[in-house]
Amino acid sequence: MKEWKFIWVVLLVLACNNTAWSQSKVQLLTTSLQNFYEKDSLPGMSVVLVDAHKIIYQQHFGYANMENNTKYSAHSIQNIGSVSKTFIAVALMKAIELGYFNLDTDINTILPFKLSNPNAPNGIITIRHLSNHSSGIIDNPEIFPNVYHFDTVLAPYDTAAYHVLQNLGYKQQIKDSALGSFMYNYLSPNGKYYHPENYGKDAPGLSSSYSNIASALAAYLIEIKSGMPYSDFVTKYILKPIGMNRSAWKLNKADLKNYARPYYKRNAPFPYYHFITYPEGGLRTNTFELGKYVMAIIRGYNGDESLLKRASYAAMFMPQFSAQAPPKGISLVKRNKGIFWNLYTNGTIGHDGDDPGVSSFLFFNPKTGLGGIFLCNKYLEDKTAIINLLVEYTNKTLK
């Protein structure tokens, strides 16, 4: 009897020690995040870490709306920038499962107009090229910022902050509202925004140039083949099945109280905005619902077929570039490319995002089965510190 009591005491002590270890690590992470939040003078910030089934850590700092003293929470909705491209990846794989096309389909066999890189007229652009940024379609800096449309009526904003954006080229000089019409006008030689500098110098596959417009073009191909707006396709096949019921692509005035304001700096908000090429960066969501998304991706990576088939996950996360012959303009020292997803050499898979008043990062670690999301309502020139911090903690177990 005494022996069993001794074993019970030992187990209890070990359990207490493990709990203390976990609590100390969690507190250290929270303190580090607090220091990061203060150092970068962020208006608001949210971090959520998950495993395949639940949130294992969450912490939120500052304000979604400083003028109204609205705290930033896991339910604060904001644009997530280029993290949206991971949804294009999943949507493409679903479209392939539905038989619309494959990764190596010539996009000119789908488009209602013909496009051709004037610098490489014989090159064939495929969906794969669009998804790994080697299509030769580039974001012309004289044109691309103008796809952003700012709502100067919806809420008060800082005029000096808005002037900063205008001086950077965000002048709203493009009036198109439909994704398809913009693609025609930008890419077709007969389009009103067409210019040879909308294309790079090399044939498809030979060079890498990160392109928001090429990314949105991939989403437009889904629109054409599915017969529904891309936003509806993603809602049907991704958002609803996961339970991302508050996530959407358009500004919703009725939901304004739940939005995080985009800020240039503390107490200097930008106007709310949307943009024509919305699939590449315009998803409005929060860390709570993105947590559901990361959980679903982790489960899918490990064989769950609720969202996509196993073969689709394998194709989506397949390295696109060989170390021996990568395209010009890309270094494989820190990452390779999957289908839109970044395959980081530290073992994680994810994507970051930036836009006016937006910084974001979403990732998971296949080895530990943990992942995370970071959102804040201010553009950060360098997210390296917080990315490294979150990656470090998903190399461990916080449960």
Give the overall average pLDDT: 93
The parts where pLDDT drops under 50 for at least 5 residues are 1-21
* Proportion of strand residues: 15-25%
- Sequence of strands across the biggest β-sheet: 3-2-1-14-13-12-11-10
- Could you state the CATH homologous superfamily of the domain at 77-334? DD-peptidase/beta-lactamase superfamily
Major sheet summary line: 8 strands, antiparallel
CATH class of the domain at 77-334: Alpha Beta
How many beta-strand elements?
14
CATH architecture of the domain at 77-334: 3-Layer(aba) Sandwich
Question: Percent helix among the residues?
Answer: 25-40%
Broad structural category? alpha+beta
Rg computed from alpha carbons, rounded to a whole number of angstroms: 22 Å
Gap from first CA to last CA: 33 Å
Spell the H/E element sequence.
Answer: HEEEEHHEHHHHEEEEHHEEEEEH
**Alpha plus pi helix count:** 10
Report the CATH topology name of the domain at 77-334: Beta-lactamase
What shape does the CA trace take? globular
